[in-house]
Amino acid sequence: MWLARSKRGRGIGTAALRMLLDEAARSGARTVVADTKAHNTAALTALRRNGAQIITSQDTVEVHAALMPSEMPPPPPTANL
User: Fold this and answer.
1) Is it the case that residue 53 has pLDDT exceeding 80?
2) What is the dihedral angle through the alpha carbons of 9, 14, 35, 40, rounded to the nearest 10 degrees?
3) Using CA atoms, how far apart are residues 79 and 64, in angstroms rounded to an integer?
């Protein structure tokens, strides 16, 4: 998932991730996996807000996140999209 710079900081990424997780749960998925970089604070914030288990590598800048759709917390309040 990628957002244009002009659309960042409005909760769109968090909301889009929530929609993806809701659809994953409806389709029976048990885990959703995301990979990003350690410096991508916006992605990490959206993942954490949706209950991701963040797994970092000490050797690289890679970050692996596992989300369990059926155990997701309620969605956070979103900004005006």
Assistant:
1) yes
2) 20
3) 26
